[in-house]
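Table S2 (continued). Query chain:
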Amino acid sequence: MNADRIVVALAVSVQFALFLRWFYRRIRNDEILRAFVQDMATNHLPHIYHALREMCRAQGIELSEPPPIHWVELNGSDSPRRRTERW
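Corresponding output:
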């Protein structure tokens, strides 16, 4: 084989490996971010709203009900599926 072809093949394979590594990290970061947001909304926001309610009750302020959590899944379909959770 020609030495130039070996160098080009090596450069292309290294670039492809770096691209795959970047792509995997990007997908993994999106999954971690999604899990963090879902955990924050379902586990921590109810406690925050409860503490806010207690502080307002001590001050004599009336609050309305906390808003529901709306999950919108955008998976490429024509109509996104909606899921609502109440605390």
